[in-house]
Write a structure and sequence with these properties.
Length: about 350
């Protein structure tokens, strides 16, 4: 434990300061793991190609990112950064940047074809905080939030705006799977896919975030080993220049449940395709066929979702299996675009919002 000497009222005080272990190379990580230092400082690392910056076995420690973190180029399907553990504190320090230099992988087709592309950051955390990270140009997906519980992600800046002109695709901001009690707030995403995609999870809050340039905010359930999304709150967010505003989509012929999704005070600005989408016939290649009811959408609350869609777009699209949804509450004001006369499956307690 290091110490600092400070003065207070002319009296010298000896103050204990937590010692830190500096990492300048991935070769330092094993020694950092064995050290008694509570703070691990990552400084200006270039991670070798095909290697993860791997923080497993750092329970109870703080990981600070300083300077610029970069990665060698290789076509592979691993993760550039792995963070697993309990009671961890992940912090981005002033002036730092995690730079994926994604243009080296971008080929306009993301994970669907072309080059093999790594995930940017894989997190599997418990009782932890991730705060202040600044991330630029991810090869494809940014955050995998997988099997996490009681974790806060805050003040995160994911900047993939270069991908709009250089071939970025599937550059999701936050992908959530099998996680519980997750809060993502005060963050920004500029990308070419979902800002947030919840595939499964319980008690998730996405609040005070700005999503720009991508495919909107999605609860997308089906096709995984767990197909439940319950008690989801998306609140006080802005979706700017995305093709979709907000959506709930369930897999065609899938099994599971969506229960208790709320979109509250969400502002849509300059949406190009559809403002609000609720569908039960989703496939990765796009909606297809008649919706199936194996993943019913219950207790959906659309409250004060407002904004504008461009003239060739559609305000609201609903296509769910009749009789499968229940308990919907709807209050939206999406202007511009076109009304969709073919909305299907709205529960009986609600007048069809497509006709408002």
């Amino acid at each position: 434990m290091a110490s600092n000497i400070i003065t207070f009222g002319g009296v010298f005080l000896l103050v204990a300061v937590a010692s830190a272990f500096d990492i300048w190379s991935v070769d330092h990580i094993p020694n950092a793991k064995k050290s008694n230092d509570k703070v691990i400082r990552v400084r200006d690392i270039n991670v070798p190609a095909g290697t993860a910056l791997d923080f497993q076995g750092f329970d109870g420690k703080t990981i600070e990112f300083h300077g610029r973190v970069t990665f060698g180029y290789k076509e592979w399907e691993g993760h550039l950064i792995i963070i697993k553990g309990k009671n961890m504190n992940i912090k981005g320090m002033p002036g730092h940047l995690i730079d994926g230099e994604g243009h080296r992988w971008w080929d306009k087709c993301g994970g669907n074809c072309g080059k093999k592309k790594p995930f940017m950051i894989y997190t599997q955390l418990e009782n932890s905080y991730v705060d202040g990270l600044k991330i630029k140009n991810t090869p494809a997906w940014c955050f995998a939030i997988n099997q996490c519980s009681n974790v806060h992600y805050s003040n995160i800046d994911i900047d993939n705006r270069d991908g709009h002109t250089k071939g970025g695709h599937n550059t999701d901001g936050f992908d959530v799977h099998k996680s519980r009690n997750i809060r993502i707030y005060n963050s920004k995403v500029n990308n070419q896919d979902d800002c947030l995609a919840i595939n499964s999870g319980w008690d998730i809050v996405f609040e005070n975030n700005v999503c720009e340039g991508g495919h909107g905010i999605a609860v997308a359930v089906g096709g995984y080993d767990v197909n439940e999304a319950k008690n989801i709150l998306i609140k006080n967010c802005k979706v700017i220049k995305n093709n979709i505003g907000v959506r709930v989509k369930t897999l065609l012929n899938g099994k599971g449940i969506v229960d208790g999704v709320t979109f509250d005070n969400v502002e849509l600005k300059d949406i190009s395709e559809v403002g609000i989408v609720i569908i039960g016939n989703y496939l990765n290649s796009g909606p297809r066929g008649e919706p199936t009811g194996g993943i019913p959408i219950k207790n959906l609350n659309i409250n004060n979702v407002r904004g504008n869609v461009f003239g060739n777009g559609t305000n609201i699209q609903i296509n769910v299996a009749p009789g499968s949804p229940s308990g919907w509450i709807w209050k939206s004001q999406v202007k511009g675009g076109k009304k969709n006369p073919n909305c299907k499956g709205t529960p009986g307690n609600l007048n069809n919002p497509c006709n408002w």
